[in-house]
Amino acid sequence: MKIYNNLSEFIAPQYAVVTSGTFDGVHQGHQKILKRIRKIADQHNGETVLITYWPHPRHVLFPEDNSLQLLSSIEEKAELLSQNGIDHLIRLPFTQEFAQMAPEDFVQNILINAIGTKKLVIGYDHHFGKNRSGNFEFLKQNQDRFGFELEEISRHDVDEVGVSSSKIRNHLLRGTLKEANQYLSRPYELSGQVVHGQKLGRTIQFPTANIEVAFKHKLIPKFGVYAVLVEFEGALMEGMLNIGKNPTVSATEDVKMEVHIFDFDKDLYQQCVRVIFIDRLREEKKFESVAALKSALEEDKNAAKTILKNYRR
Description:
Elements: E1 2-4, E2 16-20, H1 28-43, E3 47-54, H2 57-61, H3 74-83, E4 88-93, H4 96-99, H5 103-114, E5 117-123, H6 136-141, H7 143-146, E6 149-153, H8 155-161, H9 165-174, H10 177-184, E7 188-195, E8 209-213, E9 224-232, E10 235-244, E11 256-261, E12 272-282, H11 290-310
Family: Belongs to the ribF family.
Organism: Persicobacter psychrovividus
InterPro entries: Cyt_trans-like, FAD_synthase, Riboflavin_kinase, Riboflavin_kinase_bac, Riboflavin_kinase_bac/euk, Riboflavin_kinase_dom_sf, Rossmann-like_a/b/a_fold
């Protein structure tokens, strides 16, 4: 997959099958659109083109509102789109000025002049242009003039999947990880750098790596203990991860993400790792003593090992 941060770098293929949107999480609903444009492109010996926007439009239009957390960073999104058969990914910088572009100008300047769209495929509720005034009806009414074919993924087809980025975010925030993973059609992931912590885990034989998430808008799942896989330098390792404030051993209000990797004793400080969330074990809780905490961690470890052993990768 080729990635473009500037439209001037893009050379239009002979038959461009195009879609556009934020595609946060690249979930099952998105995958339906991606499969469709891949099929059309193959039928016409063409190439797939996806237009996405960065930063996320809401972060630009409502800069004081930090409530929107995202399922994927721009790098994670690119990796997922590549896995789903996209040939060309165009990342348009979303600015206040761009938000004022009229739908007519978007179609003429971007879809026609820059990309040479031969077929456009969009979801049933897709909007674009100033005040989101561009939609399928606008495109359909002007289809002959624009000169490209148009296809809409119907409400029925999208609702049949029954998924949205918002629904997945809510599941992750509620701790219903299995449902989120099902809608994503893969385990939820995040990446970050291992940083120094208080090193309390090693005093009870559960050393942990403290992870600082690289992408500031990345959604962090609900506090609790999770069975996870940790990817480092191409290797997958089993472990368990805690998200929370460590109430048994810490008096601070700082939220930490700490992973204990099974049978692993190498130094990971300043290294980047990927965490893959397989299942949620329990809520975070405050134990009466450190001994009680250690006993619970032993149970967590056994439970996580059983889950990870049975997980089909």
